[in-house]
Design a protein that fits this description.
By secondary structure, this protein is α/β, with parallel strands linked by helices. The protein has one domain (about 25-170): 2-Layer Sandwich (Double Stranded RNA Binding Domain), CATH 3.30.160.150. It has 3 helices and 5 strands; from the N terminus they run H-E-H-E-E-E-E-H. A 5-stranded mixed sheet has the order 2-1-3-4-5. Helix 2 packs across helix 3. The radius of gyration is 23 Å and the shape is flat.
Length: about 170
Amino acid sequence: MKNKLVISLLIIFFVSCTGYQVGSISHPQVQKVAIGKINNETDEPRLAIFMMEKLKERILQDGSFELVNKGDAGVDAILTGTLTHFDYRARGLRRKNEQSDERYRADFYEMRLFFDYEIKTPAGLVIQQEKKSDYAHFGEAIDTAVERRDGLERASYNLSMKVISHLAEAW
């Protein structure tokens, strides 16, 4: 009697799991995504290039969409946007030596990046229109300008993760 019960429970378990499919929960009509123009309203010259590269990288890593060129046939959605501004502030302080007049100095900074974007069909129908921001930390090394640029690149990556995840899961 116990064997029949165990066998029937196992059969029910395996039959109930057969309908499960692994995959994205994105909209079924959006399969091919292209990256359009990314405008840069900041004073950082390569920031639009960072953002475009990171968006492409995230589309490829996410796997929910196929990355295509804007002019290709079969494009379902085109992502365009504007990097409006960024800011950075000291977040961590460390004690300087006791003989100095300055008691503390910045140990690391937080870089925050702001991005307005929209995703449209090739016919011009707006799928999504959002404003997002994200941040990354960077330290103070020998060349602060290089560290700041690396922080912008990391913030671009974090922001692109939010944008592509929102496209894939917002339905």
